[in-house]
Design goal:
four-stranded mixed sheet; 4 strands; 65% helix
Length: 413
């Protein structure tokens, strides 16, 4: 095991151990700060983990093996389900091939798990995203000498971060709840759209009243939204009540939103690595966070730099896979808008007001980041190639703004 994988395993293991022992664990940022600022205390904690984790975490390891098998079984079941709903004539060979390829994919993926703590489901998503971003970086001419190691944690935090070890090995860590956050806001957004086919997305800018009426006529949308925001401000969107989207045009558009936001998240972290923002004593550069420390202009500029690279790589990756440019951008806008709403809800719950303008110190505001990204887009892609991306973000603002106004009473302190 190389240094990066060992370091990732120690971090994941220590967080799992502390959560098992205490019922909660520090954030990754707090843990890394403790390593730097209180090395003796950190050593004591780590030595305890090293001595006891095999016995203490026996149930975790048993559960992890079951979760790995459940992921594989679920994927194979999905193929069976698809087969049952199609015309069987001539589909047997295609069906058998799909089963074989899926089984081989997961057999290979299990071997690639970077640590004994890494969950298969989240690694399947994040490793694929990283591969897409790395391929996009190569096409775009970015030079990344060492491919980052990517891993996930489950720490009730809607965040991702990147840092580089002293030997030059880069690591990206994504909290699983960040993936859930992106997935759920994408589902909520598409439920609001009065559309039955993909072409209708172009006309949404003229159908604002119809969108609002759709929300009014379907109270479950607002209920899903409130449940999602509540779970998000508590740090775990996965605790929101589950529900399914029908596999129609809205499902496809939801995938567009979700993938664009996920690719941007990973692209942003790769941007941090490319720009060497994180080479000093394991500083953890957060993708998105409500910050209350002193204003840091240099760090703002670093975030803008990483955003610029992130949107470039995300757009490149999606274009390579045939996605329409207008749609590629919307998930990125949607993330920042909903993130602001979550921050407002948290402030309303804790302080009795929703003013967040002064909360962005070490990071620029989401609104400013959106404006900067729109400017960068015009340099990356000619505006005539994505005309709706100029207008559709305003639709997202109106939809999510209406949902927030309809829901905020539930968060008043």
């Amino acid at each position: 095991m190389n240094n990066a994988k060992q370091f990732l395993e120690d971090l994941q293991g220590l967080l799992v151990y502390l959560k098992h022992k205490n019922g909660t664990a520090p954030s990754l940022e707090q843990l890394l700060d403790k390593q730097i600022k209180e090395p003796e205390l950190f050593k004591t904690i780590f030595d305890e983990y090293s001595k006891n984790h095999n016995d203490e975490l026996k149930h975790f390891f048993e559960g992890r093996q079951k979760r790995i098998q459940d992921v594989i079984k679920s994927s194979l079941f999905e193929i069976y389900h698809q087969y049952e709903t199609i015309d069987k004539n001539g589909a047997e060979e295609e069906f058998e091939e799909a089963l074989k390829n899926t089984a081989e994919y997961y057999e290979d993926l299990v071997l690639k798990l970077p640590t004994k703590y890494q969950e298969l489901a989240s690694f399947s998503t994040t490793s694929h995203l990283l591969n897409e971003i790395m391929e996009a970086a190569s096409i775009a001419g970015y030079k990344i000498p060492i491919q980052p190691i990517i891993g996930t944690i489950s720490n009730n935090s809607i965040n991702a971060g990147a840092f580089t070890l002293e030997n030059g090995e880069p690591i990206i860590i994504v909290d699983e709840d960040f993936l859930s956050f992106i997935h759920l806001f994408s589902k909520i957004f598409v439920q609001c759209l009065p559309m039955s086919n993909a072409e209708e997305i172009d006309t949404l800018i003229t159908r604002k009243d119809e969108i609002i009426q759709t929300i009014k006529n379907n109270p479950e949308i607002t209920n899903h939204f409130k449940d999602f925001i509540k779970a998000s401000i508590e740090g775990s969107p996965r605790k929101a009540k589950p529900y399914l989207l029908p596999k129609d045009t809205k499902y496809i558009f939801c995938t567009y939103l979700m993938v664009s936001a996920e690719l941007f998240m990973i692209g942003h972290e790769v941007g941090q690595i490319l720009k060497h923002h994180n080479n000093s004593k394991l500083k953890f550069w957060y993708f998105s966070k409500e910050c209350t420390s002193t204003y840091d202009e240099e760090r703002h500029e670093r975030e803008f730099e990483a955003d610029k690279i992130g949107v470039h790589l995300a757009m490149q990756a999606m274009a390579k896979n045939g996605f329409q440019a207008d749609f590629c951008y919307l998930g990125i806008e949607c993330f920042f808008i909903v993130n602001d709403i979550a921050l407002k809800a948290k402030k309303l719950t804790e302080k009795g007001h929703e003013e967040i303008a002064n909360d962005f110190k070490t990071h620029p505001s989401n609104q400013l980041r959106r404006e900067k990204i729109r400017t960068e887009l015009r340099e990356i892609i000619p505006p005539e190639d994505f005309p709706n991306a100029i207008y559709l973000p305003d639709i997202i603002d109106e939809i999510m703004g209406y949902l927030w106004e309809s829901s905020k009473d539930a968060f008043i302190k």
